[in-house]
Amino acid sequence: MSDSSEKKATSFLNALIAGGMAGTSVDVALFPIDTLKTRLQAPQGFIKAGGFTGIYNGLGAAAVGSAPGAALFFSTYEIMKPIVYDRMEAMGFKDQQAATHMIAASMGETMACLVRVPTEVVKAKMQTSGTPLVGTFQQVLKEKHGSPLAAITGGLYRGYGVTIMREIPFAMIQFPMYERFKVMVGDWQKEPASALQAAACGSVSGGIAAAVTTPLDVIKTRLMLGADAHGVQYNGMVDVIQRTHSAEGTAVFLSGIQPRVMWISIGGFVFFGAYEAYKRSLSPYLD
C-alpha cells in the first residue's frame, strides 16, 4: 500500500454514516445466528437458555446499539489511520501499514465498546431469558458489581474489560488482514478492489479472527450473564475462568465456535461490502 493511500482519509461524517448503516444491516439480518451462539455459551446450557425458540429475543437491543456502535468504530478507525501513519513516520518507522491498522482498529474498538457493551449485556439477557427490552434494561440498571460507576450504570458495563480484551485482539487480527487482502487483490487486477471483493476479504479475515478469539467471547458472555447455572454470581473475569474450567473443562471455552465463525464470516461479507459501497456512494458528497 502506498503512502498516499494511507494518507487519503475518509471523512468523519462519511465513515460515521456508512459504518452505522452497514452495522445495522448485518446485526439485524444475522441476529438469529448470534442468539444461537449466545445460548450455546450460556452456563445453564443451550436448551434451558431457550434452544431454537424465540431466536429474535433481544433484537430490539441489537437494533438500538448496532448503528451507533459501528459508526463510532469506523469514524474513529478511518480518522486515526492517517494520523497514526504520520506519527509513526515522524518517529522514523517507515512503511508500517499493518501496525497502523492495528493501532487505529484498537482505538476504534475502545470507542465502540462504550455503546457495544451495554447493548450486549441487555441483548444477552434477553436472548437467554426471553424478557422484554424495557424490563431487561430496568433489571440490569438495578444490578451492582465492582465498578465505581455501578451506582449509576448498574450492570450495563459488566464485562467491559473482557470485551475490550476480546475486541482488540479480534481487530488486530482482522483489520490488517482485511486491508492487506484488499491491496493484494488490487495489485493482482491493477485496480482497487471492488465492494464485492472487499466483502470477500472481510469475510475471510473475520472468520479467522472469530475462531481465534472464541475463548474470550465465551468468558465475555458468561460475565455479562452475571451468574452460573446455579445462580451464583460471578466475581470478575478470573472467577469466570476458574469456575467454568473447574465445572465444565477446557473444551467449554470453544462453545459456540461454529455459529460464531459462520455469523462473523457471513456478517463480514455483508458488513464490509455494504460499508465500502456506502462509503464510495457517499464520498462525492461528504469527502
From TrEMBL:
Its main location: mitochondrion. SUPFAM superfamilies: Mitochondrial carrier (SSF103506). It is a multi-pass membrane protein. Solcar repeats lie at residues 10-83, 96-184, 193-281. It is found in: Mitochondrion inner membrane. PROSITE patterns: SOLCAR. Pfam families: Mito_carr. The chain crosses the membrane at residues 12-33, 53-74, 261-278. GO terms for biological process: transmembrane transport. Keywords: Membrane, Mitochondrion, Mitochondrion inner membrane, Repeat, Transmembrane, Transmembrane helix, Transport. Gene3D superfamilies: Mitochondrial carrier domain. One of its GO terms (cellular component) is mitochondrial inner membrane. PANTHER family: S-ADENOSYLMETHIONINE MITOCHONDRIAL CARRIER PROTEIN. Belongs to the mitochondrial carrier (TC 2.A.29) family. This is S-adenosylmethionine transporter. It comes from Craspedostauros australis.
